[in-house]
């Protein structure tokens, strides 16, 4: 009765293709069409500048609380860039760059963050889920969607996003376990941005990596430099192909950094140092991707400057459209809609009660 | 018409809905090879295979969270939680997602899942196997909460729950699983959700109950007639939420004397909502305050004392006579 080591199926690898100094490992460089590379650059820049604009709108009281994405653009876009429109994205709440890539108009994001449910509607031609705020709970939905995709004999995939904090939730583990047991076409993209509000990654788990948790569930796992768009793309492309071919799910840990606040209600100075933020700023995903595109002859300093102005104009137009649109929204009766397919009798009564109250208070105000 | 137990009637509903619609999928712990610990899904895996009758890992939140995704995609998952005492892991998925994805997506996505779970006392079980926590689910906007009381309505309501475009929590009174048989038609039969029924007509007082409490309530009504010459009207709620109070209000206006019977604890129980509705809509017709014959506000005791906790015929008769004496 010997004591023998058990051989586990996989080892966990770390993937980096374009490092923070712009050094490229040509042997690993993914093949991405030039047009797509430029569109990725445009969306990265757009998402970053829009994020900055949202922060300033929030500080002026022109939108409500929102979770900035700065620093995570590559980890969003590298993951979704190869998806088809018919694939499903199941987001958490900090994946704005992916949302924009998938077709969300900027004004819809502004309107939503001003508290209008109307902007939560997903257009009929997109197969994506709305944001999910309870941490980690949406990961299971991706497993169910992926299960249904396979049940219907389709070769689409379900890609879900969540943060490092979510890996402490039971739903994360149940989702990976179910995905392993049912071999579903799901891709789990962990945005390890180092901080779950004030709790650092090291206090979430004693595991050396988050990616290694895949091993326990019998699915593939990889850790990538999340600020390296090429590495995220390469890992996601492999995961998506694995899922489409019926070979099961993958956990991708994108090592990235939340450069800004958790949400606009948060003050990171209470729990992390400026030095740390500065160190990560040097690993910013955008300049290194620009250096890569410049080396490839696809960008010049002038082109970047032109792109910056184009992006700002696009954002300003969206802000204007949103403010125009919001003048037409706000009918309070909307809160009674979309509870059930058919409104129950007592809810109709409550709605009528509200309409009468509204009419009376309006009349009182007019008389006063 | 064949006579069936509730277990057989529920099995018939699942089988016929699966035959009718290939988007209906059954999943849960032990639902496949084992046919469910109460045998509600017995034989389904043989007929439909393991792609449609899915034995899942042991994780309730996982089962319901996965069902949310399946339903959003367009399937109709019917998931079984083995005992309602273990369903609270799923409260998070039901409250935060199943019941509000229609709202969150402004009508784009719906979650037509059914979560079945046996509830209630009366089977000499261990702790966590006897609770009645229907209030938890009844308080959630966007969700439906259904509790049948016999084989025939269990079958017809489960059919409607599966076809319903919104999520439904379907509590099965396990004390009635094999307690009696009823004629259940082979041909399709559905009953509308959110409709109560008059189980027995009467003019002197109204007894409102549902689920496993329907049997002692009907027995109490019979005793009231035989021994005391009192004609009690008995209403079977069937759907707790969204609650249709039409019959309750009409009956209360007719008799002026009402008792609500449930095995769930009294405070904030379904009886509280019923009393509130009657106060709002039948106050001037009530001759006496509405009585609540319910479980006490304690954890349901282990089974040696369970009969003292559960409302039985004597307690219901006693409450009815007090209503009439006042």
Roughly how many Å is the radius of gyration of chain A?
23 Å
Number of strands of chain A: 8
Q: What's the helix-strand series of chain A?
A: EHHEHHHEHEEEHHEHEHHHH
Helix/strand-derived class of chain A? alpha/beta
Number of helices of chain B: 12
Q: Count every beta strand of chain B, where a strand is a DSSP E run of 2 or more residues.
A: 14
Strand content of chain B: 15-25%
Oligomer: heterodimer
Unreliable spans of chain A:
none
Helix content of chain A: 40-55%
Name the shape of chain B in a single word.
globular
Strand order of the largest sheet of chain A: 1-7-8-4-3-2
Percentage of residues assigned to helices of chain B: 25-40%
Largest sheet of chain A: 6 strands, parallel
Query: Largest interface, per-chain counts?
Result: A-B, 45 and 47 residues
Compute the separation of the termini of chain A in Å. 91 Å
Straight-line distance between termini of chain B: 45 Å
Task: Report the portion of residues of chain A in β strands.
Answer: 5-15%
Could you spell the SSE succession of chain B in H and E letters? EHEHEHEHHEHEHEEEEHEEHEHEHH
Rg of chain B, Cα atoms, Å: 19 Å
Q: Would you write up a description of this structure?
A:
The complex is a heterodimer of chains A (368) and B (326). By secondary structure, chain A is an alpha/beta fold. Chain A has 13 helices and eight strands. In chain A, the strands form two sheets. Chain A has a six-stranded parallel sheet, sandwiched between helices. In chain A, strand 5 and strand 6 form a beta hairpin. The mean pLDDT of chain A is 96. Chain B is 37% helix and 19% strand. Chain B has twelve helices and 14 strands. Chain B has a seven-stranded mixed sheet, sandwiched between helices. In chain B, helix 1 runs parallel beside helix 7. The chains are: A alpha/beta (368), B alpha/beta (326). At the A-B interface, helix 5, helix 6 and helix 13 of A face helix 3, helix 4 and helix 5 of B.
